[in-house]
Amino acid sequence: MRQPLSYPWLDLDVDDRSAPVIAVRVDADGTKGEVPEHSHRKGQLVVSLGGGVTCRVPSGLWMVPPHCAVWIPGGMAHSNRATANARLFFVYVEPELSRLPGRCCTISISPLLRELIVELSDGTQHDAARRERLIGVLLGELPRMPLQQLHLPLPAEPRLKRIAAALADNPADRRTLAEWASHLALSESSLARLVVKETGLTFGRWRQQLHLIVAIRELAAGASVQQVSAELGYESVTAFITMFRKALGQPPATYINGIANAR
């Protein structure tokens, strides 16, 4: 059962605050937590220093593994779901001060940025001049961070939304493109073209991207490679590791350990 994430200030309304940057530590309280769909004028950086978060916007799903963040431009509706072991920070930025893209993206967080965010989230920090300097460094460093390809395009077309919902509920569903086409009363070629038009990916590549996002989320939450392989319906752990390595350049254990142990 998912519980609301705990904010340090119950009355926090980031758009009512004039500060150029607001950093807030958010507690998952040892349970899977979520922030329902909402929007605000300020842009938001969802930062994970432990565990994992998935951020959903109308056009896609974005994965935030440890020591990464997802950037959500101001005014965009979004929701966040966190693993039970997540250690999160939300950083809100005035739109005119951000030099990040005008679209969602997942970025790596350097040790310097990590410490800046933790420091800025400290509500006891009253030195305005020092805070201004820290914010200046943060805003200067953010655009320099490398992007991560941890994005799943979500289709708007009703029939494809049914497929997306089914696969999200059961990632192990191995129905082929032909089987889905028959289920939706479409020809296989028509469905293939529709998937590419809506997502920019082939059906196989789109489903693989879903598997990667689910895999990283579960591995970041503490699941074993064997457990994740079974959850995704792979015939063998070796097949799952091969898929993961081809997509991200490293086997899953190495990938997760690398980002989790970043210094």
From TrEMBL:
Domain HTH araC/xylS-type as annotated: residue spans: 161-258
Keywords: DNA-binding, Repressor, Transcription, Transcription regulation
Domain of life assignment: Bacteria
Record SUPFAM superfamilies: Homeodomain-like (SSF46689), RmlC-like cupins (SSF51182)
CDD domains, per the entry: cupin_NimR-like_N
Matching InterPro entries: AraC-bd, Homeodomain-like_sf, HTH_AraC, RmlC-like_jellyroll, RmlC_Cupin_sf
Protein name as annotated: AraC family transcriptional regulator
